[in-house]
Amino acid sequence: MRGYAIEMLNITKAFPGVIANNEVTLRVFENEVHAILGENGAGKSTLMSILFGLYDADSGTILVHGKEARIRDPNDATALGIGMVHQHFKLVHNYTVTENIILGKEPRTKTGDVDLRSAEEKVSELSVRYGLEVDPRARIETISVAMQQRVEILKILYRNAEILIFDEPTAVLTPQEVDELLDIFKRLKAEGKTIILITHKLKEIKQAADRCTVLRRGKLIGTVEVADTSEEMMAEMMVGRSVLFRTEKSPAHPGKVVLDVRNLFVRNAKGFHAVRDLSLTVHAGEILGIAGVDGNGQSELVGAITGLIPVDKGSILLSGKEMARSSIRERVEAGIGHVPEDRQRHGLVPDFRLDENLVLKSYGKAPFSKRFGILDKTAIADYGRRLIGSYDIRAGKGPATKAGSMSGGNQQKVIIAREIELSPELLVVAQPTRGLDVGAIETIHSRIIAERDKGRAVLVVSFELEEILNLCDRIAAISKGEIVGIVDGEGADEREIGAMMAGVRRPAGTERKTS
Amino acid sequence: MNDLVRMIPSVLMIVSPILIAAVGGMICEKAGIVNIALEGLMGIGAFTAATVHVLLESSTPLSAWIAVLAGGAVALVVSLIHAYASISLNANQVISGTGINLLAIGGTTFMSQVIFRMERTEPFKLGMMPGPGGIYPTAWVALAVVLLSWYILYRRPFGLRLRACGEHPQAAASAGIDVRRMRYLAVMASGLLGGIAGGCLVLTQTIQYTGNTINGAGFIALAAVSFGRWQPKGVAGASLLFGTAVALAIYMVNIEALRVLPSEFFSVMPYLITLVTLVAFSGKDYAPKASGLTYEKGA
Amino acid sequence: MKGTPARKTDLIDRILASDKAISILVVLLGFLCGTILVAAVGRNPAGMYTAMLQTLTGLDITRGTWNIRYVGEWLTASLPLILCGLSLAFAARTGLFNIGAEGQYIVGLTAAQFVAIYGPQIPVLHWALALLAACVAGALWGGIVGWLKARFSVSEVVATIMLNYIAFFFSRWATMQIPGANTYRTPTLPETARLTSPLLDRLFNGSRLNLGLFVALVSCLVFWFVIEKTKLGFELRATGLNRDAARYAGIGVTKSITTSMLFAGAFAGLAGAVVALGSFSYGRVLGGYDNYGFNGIAVALVGNNTAGGTLIAGLLFGMLASAQPLMQSRQIPKEVTWIISGLVVIFISLRAGFRLLSDRRAKRRTAGLKETRDE
After folding, report:
1. In chain A, which residues have their Cβ closer than 8 Å to the Cβ of B298?
2. What would the pLDDT profile of A341-382 be if each residue is shown by its tens digit?
3. List of chains touching C (3+ CB pairs within 8 A)
4. d(C-alpha B162, C-alpha B153), whole Å
C-alpha cells in the first residue's frame, strides 16, 4: 500500500466574515500528481497556504510522510521538504537566475563570500537533471515567463523539495508552454516527487493529474480518480449545479466599421514593441474578442486604443477619425468607453463616494457642473441613486458609499454602469469578470451583450478562452503582439484558437471575415 | 591652478561627512526604506559629538574619536524611532522622517539649553587635527566606509539578501529572509553613519554645534544617493561633486577674481548645482523597486 | 459573530476610522511627552501650562493679572501657521508633500517687501498689491516644483528642499539691493503698505494683530470652496487619492499637480506677506529661517488636510509658538514646543498605518477570503 505524503485532516480556517476552509480533509499519496479543483473563493489557495506555512489553521492536523508536523512559517515547510511555486512569481527582477535561486541559502567561499561559481554549477546540474532549461547568468527581467516559472521550480528543488505545490501554474503560459510544463510534471514524478496542483482548468487535470480533490465554498466535496471522472462531472462538483457552458444570445447584426486599427506599434514599459504591426476592425453591433495568454500585448493594445499608453507607429480610427494622438479626455468625449482590467487601480477611486465614481468622466459637464466650474452635488447624488436602482448595485450607504468598501462584483457594476451610461460608440472591456463569482459573471456578460444589441461596437479582451467563446461574435487570437488569425465565434474550435494563441498562423486565404 | 590643488584637503574635509551620510542613506534605501531624516540624524550626531568632546577633551587625546562614536551611537538610537514607525507600524516614511528632522532641531537646542544654558554648545578648544598632507582622518574614514559598503552589499550573502528586501520583499520573504529585521538593521546603519558624519562635520569644520551647523548637508547627501543611482561608486562620485560645490562656496572668497560676486552667489551654488543635476539626470528607474513602499507580511 | 470581542474591535475601529479622534489623541500624546521631558530635566512642567493658559486667555494665574494683548499675540502668531498649513494641506489633497513651503514663504515675503517699498502709496491698494505680488511669487516658486515633478518625475522632496535654500540666499541678496538697506533691514515701510488696523490695535490692547487675520480667514474659505465645491477640486482630489484612475478618466495629471502647487505656493507666499506687512515696520534681510513653512507640516497633518482642521491646528501651534517667551521666563527651554511638534508629526505619520490596518480589517469583512495578493 502506498503511503501518504501529505495528510491534512479536518482543517478549519476562518477569516472575519467567512469560513475559508471548513473541516477539509485532504490526503495525497506519495509520488502522485494530485489536483485541487475549485472556483475563486473555494478555499484551495488558503488550504495550500496553510500547508506552506503562510497561514495557521484554526483547527486540524497535518501529517507529513505519516508524522505529525507543525508548520509555522515557510521555513518550517521547506525543512519538511515542501515547496510552493506561486502564481505571482517571487523573483527579484534585476538579479540573475542563479542569484534568485540561491537567495537565502547561498554557497560560501572559504572567506564567507558568496560563491557564485559553485552556485552556477549547482544550478546547471539541477537544470539538466530535471529537464528545466534555464540560462544561469540571465537577468530575470530579460527572460520569458515560462523560463521564469522554471526558475521558481528550481528554487524549490534547490532546497530539496520532495512535495511540490503549484498554484495555478498554467494561467500565464501558452498552450505549447503548458504542454512543456506537463512534461516537466512527468519528469518530476519519475524522480520520485509528489505534486499538488491548484487549478480550475478541467482539461489540464484530465491530462496531468492522478486524483483530484474538489472544494466548493470552503467545504470538501469529494476526491475522485481522474481517469474515472468526466469533465462535466468535475465541473458540476465544482460549481454545484449543471453548468451552462454557453450564454444565451441572439445572432449579431454587424454594421459599419467603428474601430479601425492599422499597422499599430506600441512599446511596453521595457521599451520593446509589445504590439507589432497589428491591424483589426470592430463593427457596430458586434462583439470582437481578443484571445491570448497574458503578456502578448493585450494590455498595450487596450492602452493604446484608450489613450493610456502612447502609440509608437500606426493609426487608430474611430468612425473614420484619427485618434492615435488624441488625449484620453478627447477619446472619452469621442465615444470610447473603457472597462479596465485593473478595476482598483484604474477603474475607481476607492476613497471617493459611489456617485463621485459614477461621474468620474462626466463631472465637468452639465448637469453635474454649473457655471463657474461649481459642482452640483445634489444632481450627482440623484444620478447615483438612479443607477444604483437600474444596475442593481449593492451599496450599504446609497450614493455615499465609499467605492473601496464594496465587493468586487459591485465595483465592476459601478464601472460598467458608468461606461454604458456615457453611450460610447466603442466599448473596450478588459478582463471583465476577473475575480468575480458566477452570479456576477452572468450579469456582466448580459450587459455586454445588451450593449452590442443596442448597436455599439464592443471589444473584449480576456485571458479566459471560455469567456471569449461564450461572448464573442468574432474571435481574434493575439500572439507576441500580432493578430495571428480571426475566426467566427459561432462554431469556433478551441484547439484552433489555442494554436493561434501560440503563434501558429492559419493558412492564407482561409480567414473568415464579415464585411 | 595651484590654488585649486591646495584646496583639495579642504574639499575632502567637506566631502567626507556628506559621503559617509550618503552611504548610510544608500544602504537604507537599498533595503527599501526612504530616510529623509539624515539631516536630523547628522544634527544629533554633531550635537552629541560636540558635547562629548567639550567635556572630554582635557581628559584624553582620543576625545575626538570617542565623541564621533558617541554621536553615531545616539543617532543610531534615534533612528530606531523612524525604523519602528516605518517598519513595524507602516507609517508614511517621508512624514516620519520629517518628524525626526523637526525633533532633532528642537531636541538638540533643547539639550543645549539644559546642559550649557545657551542655544549652542560650548566651543571646544581643538577639533580633529589634520594628518599628513593636510588631509583630515575623516577622509580615510569616508573611503573605508565606501569600500566596506561595496564589499558587504555585493560580495556577502548579507548584502544579497538586503538588496533583495529593497527590490522585492515578498521574494526575499519566501526565501526565508526576515525582511523586517533586515530593514531595521539598514535603518540603524544609516543612523550610525549619519551620526558619525555629523560628528566628523562638527569636529573638522567648526568649533561648536549650532542650529546652522548641518545646514542642508544631510539633504545634499540624499541627493547624492539619488544622483549616484544607489550604487557605492556613483554615490561616492556624486558626493565628491556636491561637496566640491559646497567647498567652492566657502573658499571662493579667497580667489581675487571672484570677489566681485556677492557672497550669496557662492552660498547658493551647492544647492543650485544639486538641483540642476537632479533635474538633468532624474533617474527614477534606478531606485530600488520597493523603496518607500510599506511591506505587509502575508501570502 | 457577536459577543464582547466584536464590540471591542468595533470601538477600536471607530477610533481608527475617525481622523479627528486620531488628531486629538496624537496632540495629547505629544503634550504628554513634552511634559514628561520637561520634568525629566528638572524643570516644573506646570510652567508650561500656565504659560499656555496666559497665551490663550491673557490671564496670568501666578500674578492674577489679565491683559488681552496676549490673546492678540497668540492670534498673530497663528496666522502664518494657518496659511502655511493651508499650503501643505492643499498640496496633500493632490497627493503631494510640499516641504517647499518655507521657500515659497520666503519669496512671498520678499515680493511683498519690494512692492511695499516701490509700490504706489495709495491706502488699501498698496497692501492689496503687495499681497497679490506675494501670491504670484509664491505660486511661481511652487509651480516650478509641480511642473518638474509632473514632467520629469523629479522627487519633489529633495528638489523643494534645495529651492528652500536657494530662496533664502536669493532673498537676502535681492533685499540688500534696495537703496538704503543694510545687512539686516530695509528702510521703514510706508504706512499704506502695512496691514495694521487701528480697530484691532484698540481691541487687543496694542498687540500686533492685524488685517492678516481676515486674510487667513478668507484663505480658509477659499480652500474649502475650491476643494469641496468646484470641478477643479474634484480633479485635484481624484488625482490625490488615485492618480492612475484620475488619468484613466481623462484628468490631466500634470495639469493637476502643477495647479495644486500653484495654489499651495500662493498660500505660503501669502503667509510671508502677512508676516512682513503685519508684524514688522521695516523690510527684513533674513538672517535665518522663520520656519513657518516647516511648522506648517505639523499643522496640516493634525488638521487632516481640511480647511477647518487646519484653522484649529494653526491656532494650536500658534499658541505653542506664542507661549515660548512666557515659557522661557518660567525656566522652561522654549524648544520644548519644537519637540512637541516633531513628536506630533511622527505620531501622525502612523495614521497612514492605522488607516491601512482598519482598511484591511474592513476588506476582510466584506470581501471575505483574499486568495492571491496583487503585488
Report:
1. 54
2. 988 889 999 999 999 999 999 998 888 988 888 999 999 999
3. A, B
4. 8
**C-alpha cell of residue B281:** 539626470
Closest CA to C230 of A376, A402, A367: A376
A58 touches A18 (CB < 8 A)? no
Which stretch, B8-12, B68-72, C181-185, has highest mean pLDDT? B68-72
Q: What is the DSSP string of B91-144?
A: --HHHHHHHHHHHHHHHHHHHHHHHHSSSSPPPPS--PPP-GGG--HHHHHHHH
pLDDT given for residue B282 in this prediction: 64
Rounded-to-integer distance, Cα A154 and Cα A133, Å: 10
Note the ipTM here.
Answer: 0.84
Cell 463569482 -> residue: A437
Question: A227 by DSSP, 3-state: which?
Answer: helix
pLDDT of residue B294: 67
Q: How far is CA B32 from the centre of its chain?
A: 17
Burial class from Cβ neighbours inside 10 Å (0-12, 13-18, 19+) for residue A241 reads exposed
- Mean pLDDT per block of 10 residues along chain C (375 residues) reads 49 69 85 90 86 88 85 93 96 89 96 94 91 96 86 76 91 92 89 88 86 95 95 94 92 90 96 94 89 87 91 92 87 84 83 66 49 29
pLDDT at A17: 64
Q: What is the pLDDT of residues A244-259, one digit of tens each?
A: 555 677 787 888 999 9
| Contact (CB, 8 A) for A13 and A58 | yes
Average pLDDT over residues B132-136: 85
pLDDT at A509 over 50: no
For B160, which of A78, A86, A103 is closest by C-beta distance? A103
Question: Where would I find the beta strands (DSSP E) of A269-312?
Answer: 273-283, 287-291
Those residues with Cβ within 8 angstroms of residue A142's Cβ, 6 or more apart along the chain or in another chain: none
Predicted pLDDT of residue B90: 79
pTM, rounded to two decimals: 0.81
Contact: B299, C372; criterion CB under 8 Å: yes
CA distance A106 to chain C (A): 25
> What was the pLDDT predicted at C368?
35
Strands A426-430 and A33-37: unpaired
Instruction: For residue B171, give the nearest of A78, A84, A90 by CB distance.
Output: A90
Asked whether the beta carbons of residue C342 and residue B274 sit closer than 8 angstroms, the reply is: no
Which residue in B211, B219, B272 is closest to C158 by CB distance?
B219
**DSSP β-ladder status, A336-339 and A426-430:** parallel
Q: Which of B200, B176, B56 is nearest to B125 (CA)?
A: B56
- Mean of the per-residue pLDDT values of chain B: 87
Mutate to test the interface with A, among C222, C256, C369, C375 (most CBs of A within 10 A): C369
* Residues of chain A found within 8 Å of residue B157, distances taken between Cβ atoms: 106, 108, 112, 114
Q: How many CA atoms lie within 13 A of A109 on its CB side?
A: 8
Give the Cβ contact number of residue C199 at 10 Å.
9
Instruction: State CA B116 to chain mean position distance.
Output: 26
Q: What is the DSSP string of A314-341?
A: EEEEETTEE-TT--HHHHHHHTEEEE-S
Nearest to A20 by CA among A54, A66, A64: A54
User: What is the amino acid identity at position C368?
Assistant: G
Q: C162 vs B101: CB contact, 8 Å cut-off?
A: no
Stated as kind and residue range, the H or E segment containing C108 is helix C101-118
Q: Are A368 and A383 in contact (CB under 8 A)?
A: yes
Kindly state the average pLDDT of the residues B28-32: 93
Q: How far is CA A280 from its chain centroid? A: 24
Phi, psi of B258 (to 5 degrees): -100, 5
Q: pLDDT by residue (tens digit) across B163-192?
A: 999 999 989 988 888 999 999 999 999 999
Where in chain C does DSSP place strands (E)? 59-60, 65-66, 185-188, 282-284
Q: Which residue has the cell 557662492?
A: B266
Give CA–CA dist C351/B3, Å, rounded: 54
